[in-house]
Predict the structure.
Amino acid sequence: MSMARNKIKLLVVDDSRMFRESLKSNLENDNITVVGTASDAFEAKDMIMELSPDVMVLDIQMPKMDGITFLRRLMEQYPLPCIMITSSTIDEREVVDAGAAGFMRKPKTPQEMHTFCSVLGTKIIIAASNKMRYTRKQSSSPDTSVDGVASLPGTLPKVKYTPELPTKEAAAGAAAKGREGFVVALGASTGGTDALECVIKAFPADMPPVVVVQHMPPVFTKMYAERLNKSCAVNVREAVNGDRLKCGDCIIGAGGYHLELKKDANGYYISSKLGEKVSGHCPSVDVLFSSVADTAGKKAIGALLTGMGADGAKGLLKMHKAGAYTIGQNKETCIVYGMPMEAYKLGACAEQQALDKVGETICRRLAAGWTDKDLNNK
């Protein structure tokens, strides 16, 4: 989907008319258009068939049928990226199990609405652009009713979907051979939360230390690290100044703090300190990559993923010149081909890779190493 030419068609489903109107006014921009709003599952079902939205924002607490029940029924016949929202306490695992692409708690005050919609807008873009591999299987006996809601057309295939990830066996076999003293550095911005998860999930438990900067506000980085830690083999945590690094560690730069790699006689550790914005951001990917170039030199691999702007491009070039192996996410799989494009234009990338191959490529390079010929193959 080209965000510049084709706006994401969004359907908003919430029983509060005021909240629906507020979401519509706050979310519509150059990338998103709200094609419809519905107050319950019955209205939503009809609008899905009429409007063919790309993404749905769905409230959990609604009359007639709750959002989770509706989503479960919908995903069986008409898989649709959905961000679920709620004002009450609920187990997030239940939301994920229902098939949601994301989850957010509603703002408690009008002052929180702007931040809420800003984050929600990013999640909508990610959900619409996420590349999934589908295995279609025609249902032999499609349902004709869903708890009182007329079923979507029985001719639609049932779909099972899984993210495009390299096998854990292939990744583990490669990275387990990684040489001592190596470090992996990752940077991302818009669309990076899902992209980074795709890459980090490919890493085995004995992966060399991984340091990461994702442009994200304070507080959210801790929540993000905790989420990744539950789904990845490596130990993911938010950066704390002075933390020592060992194999199996994955450090996420804290929002508002620059993350840098340091080294002394006892090995690698990190610096996480307040600072002015660099390349427009704090934490900055340029700051991290520059420190990795200075500290680890040729014993490093860097990957710059999807994101708007140019943060990380100069830092990746510095890593490249220091002998590190450098990777840029390719245009076809980026939500925003900004940061990796700028790095490629500078000659900072030894290669460009599709997102679902980046983790595997990192593990393969750790096992096999690289030569000057590899580094000059731009």
